[in-house]
Design brief:
Blueprint: H1 7-24, H2 33-45, H3 64-74, H4 85-98, H5 101-112, E1 118-121, E2 137-141, E3 144-152, E4 162-168, E5 179-185, E6 191-196, E7 205-216, H6 227-243, H7 253-265, H8 271-299, H9 308-330, H10 342-353, H11 364-375
Parallel strand pairs: 1-4
Antiparallel strand pairs: 2-3, 3-7, 4-5, 6-7
Helix pairs in contact: 1-3, 4-5, 4-6, 6-9, 7-8, 7-9, 7-10, 8-9, 9-10, 9-11
Length: about 400
């Protein structure tokens, strides 16, 4: 289907989206996984879920231009599917890019309609920023793979049905080789999920342990021993998803929260505060424009590239600036709130979560390395383990 829409077609589709969101997008439920699944199911029934994915695999079979219009209209409404950003922004495009047709037919329709929820299973206690040092292993046993090891900081594993997991399948290879990607049923015997209690009172992250977990051989996702390539692609999708969440037009959500509080407290009359607010406004405007460019490149058929790290890094810098300003204008109210005050909660949740912005999806240092190497063309750091078999490395808990 051609991506070119006439003005009349674009207007008609935008009206359809607006009518749907007016009827179904309700404020105050953005962090509710049940509400997200219910909303996504209605989207699927209306033909508005998985917009650019083939109808054969459960998508709407429309174009990336339709997707852009949807995102642009959705900016006017409460975000209902924030809890599905990993399932749809990371796992779904990886399934679509690397899955076999059989895998796509089996898994994508339920993912798109949120009948199943998916998580990303990369980080380990000894392999965070250096994901390639992972020690979770998968060994072939007839028509199955046997998985043993541990993952940590796995977002929403406790409410997910499946995980996209990478594991070491050949320790004789260097650490960036000998890795494969799998589709894991989280209800499989031997999977133990332990939620991690967080400072905001929630349990968004998890430790996950694997003890002789059996994975069907047909659940190998992509090429055997080439999982690092697939993992890198997934990380690119992740950074675009985080750095351009819901990007359809230029917005300044952090500025909006801070400006409301500055007016409420009277701090808006302070010229220093106004200057700080305008810096955030300008930074968010720039970030939105970068995000729109990334989305435009994807619309043109390009896979996400290292430019996604620009939006991810800038989002972290904005979050850090937000934290400083929020403390100045709101004082103790920036970290403690009345549970019935939604204005305070919006400030506090952003305040507390800002600390994780420089870690989740890859640390700021990793993003700077990617930008320096792949965007600016600067020399890479010297790697001393490039050709060393993984089993000979002293990484994580592994000691030779």
């Amino acid at each position: 289907m051609s991506s070119a829409l006439s003005a009349a077609e674009a207007t008609e589709f935008a009206a359809k989206v607006r009518d749907f969101l007016t009827a179904n997008a309700k404020s105050g439920r953005g962090r509710d996984i049940s509400a997200a699944k219910e909303f996504q199911g209605k989207l699927a029934a209306a033909g508005l879920a998985g917009i650019p994915f083939a109808s054969e695999f459960g998508g709407a079979g429309l174009t990336l231009e339709h997707e852009r219009i949807f995102r642009q209209v959705a900016q006017e409404f409460p975000m209902m599917t924030g809890e599905l950003v990993i399932s749809h922004g990371m796992c779904l495009p990886v399934l679509n890019e690397f899955g076999t047709d059989d895998q796509k037919r089996k898994f994508m329709p339920d993912n798109i309609a949120a009948r199943t929820v998916w998580c990303q299973m990369f980080s380990e206690p000894g392999a965070g920023s250096d994901v390639a040092s992972l020690q979770t292993k998968a060994e072939r046993d007839g028509d199955e793979w046997v998985l043993n090891g541990q993952k940590v900081w796995t977002t929403l594993a406790h409410v997910s049905d499946y995980g996209v997991i990478i594991a070491r399948t050949d320790p004789e290879q260097p650490k960036h080789a000998g890795i494969s990607m799998f589709i894991l049923d989280l209800k499989s015997p031997g999977v133990e999920i332990r939620p991690i209690h967080q400072i905001d009172g929630g349990s968004h992250f998890n430790e996950v342990f694997f003890s002789d977990v059996r994975i069907p051989a047909e659940n190998l996702l992509g090429e055997y021993n080439n999982g690092w390539r697939q993992a890198t692609a997934m990380l690119m999708y992740e950074r675009v998803a985080i750095g351009s969440m819901n990007s359809g037009k230029i917005t300044q959500p952090m500025y909006d929260i801070l400006a409301k509080w500055a007016k409420r407290s009277g701090a808006i009359n302070n010229p220093v505060v106004r200057d700080d607010l305008m810096k955030v406004y300008c930074m968010e405007t720039t970030k939105a424009m970068v995000a729109m460019r990334n989305r435009a490149e994807m619309k043109a058929g390009k896979a996400p590239g290292p430019g996604g790290s620009l939006g991810k890094l800038y989002g972290s810098i904005i979050a850090r600036r937000f934290r400083q300003i929020a403390q100045n204008i709101a004082g103790p109210a920036s970290v403690a709130w009345d549970g019935d005050n939604t204005d305070e909660e919006a400030l506090n949740i952003n305040m507390i979560s800002s600390l994780s912005s420089g870690i989740a999806g890859g640390t700021d240092e990793i993003q700077r390395n990617i930008i320096g190497d792949r965007v600016l063309g600067l020399p890479r750091d010297i790697s001393v383990d490039t050709n060393v078999p993984f089993k000979e490395l002293r990484v994580g808990t592994q000691r030779t």
